[in-house]
Amino acid sequence: MRRALLLNDGTWEVLQEVSKFQQRDVEEILKEAIREYLRKQGYSNLYINLMLEATFCDDAENEELTLLIDSIPSEELQIEKEIEVET
Question: What's this model's pTM, rounded to 2 decimal places?
Answer without folding.
Answer: 0.55
